[in-house]
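Board notes (copied after class):
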Amino acid sequence: MQHSETVGGRSHSDIFEEILKGGHIKPVYQPIVFLSNGQVYGYEALSRISKQELQMNIEQMFQLADKNGNAWELAKLCRARALENAAQLSADKKLFLNVNSNILYDNQFRTGFTREHLQEYGVDASYIIFEITERVAALDSSAFLCSIDHYKKQSYGIAIDDAGAGYSGLNNIASVKPNLIKLDMSLVRDIDKDKIKRLLCKAMVDFGKSAGIQLIAEGIETEEELAVLVRLGVDLGQGYFLGLPQESFSRIAAEKMETIKRCHAKQYNENFTNSVYPIVGHLAKPGYIVSPDEKLGSIYETLRLNPTVTEFSVVRDDLTMGFMTRTDLNELLGGRYGYGLHSKKTVQQAMKPDFSRVNYGRRGFASRNAKAVGAVVQSHCGGKGREVSGDCDH
């Protein structure tokens, strides 16, 4: 895109010089979320011009900095602004900082990221992820890779940005061995309509899982794109559909989290339909529950009046402790002396503690507490209250 060389009669160079001298930069933070549950993983720090009369295209501003030899000064200003709010970041969240590959190994840059310097902002190195663009080739690849190794040893994270749109592509990923890879938005755009893009994305997902590298899809703009990325197993997502850049560290909207849950629910349903191994959640059904302190005689009378109840779960504080079937109870209380011997015992004394407790939908897509389900799956594995968690369609 071509941009005019002047704004309001002033050249872009003059506007840029005033921005740099006056420090007229403010940070905004765009959430990067887990596509498993919609929780925020971290935020990418982006820069905006803070003075209205100095507005210009952000990308062009950085291009001017490169052209005029001010790349380091602008990067330092943007980084300082981004870190000013870092102390407000939750301890389990990451802060992504964009770094030009040719600045990363600059001695001034290294000085600016000593542990002592970060402590001034109240942030630890383990919270910082350097996001290195593939769009700019490193002029000194040896120094660049040495710097990568240095920052990894200092507990910084490394992300390769714009994967699929850069100079060195897979070779760069192999050399850097990043913690995260960000798929370029050109691969994400209209992925729901493009089979080749889906195949490329799936290949990157498989590669990431094998290499222990998390994959981020950036530039998500539609629910259809999100649904495909969820189905393909992409770890993390970012884009205007999920959350706009904000001046504060914000969660994504509740309706967006619900959208992610719906995408997963649909995927689970498809897995169930297409698999010979049914998902346990589809087999479970609401059931009858009792307190562990309830007397067997009382339960017997309740079941006698409710012939449809064939088994029941013993639950305390939403945690299933055991279960018992109608047949078990009848056998225990039957006969000449059964009722007299056992009717005043609590169900906890008579229940079966050997069972599998299945946490269906541990990521929150279809989770149900014990009061809602009240049913457990009997297990003959001999485990005491063995809990089964994870994706139960495996």
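Comment from the instructor: The radius of gyration is 29 Å. The first helix runs from residue 12 to 22.
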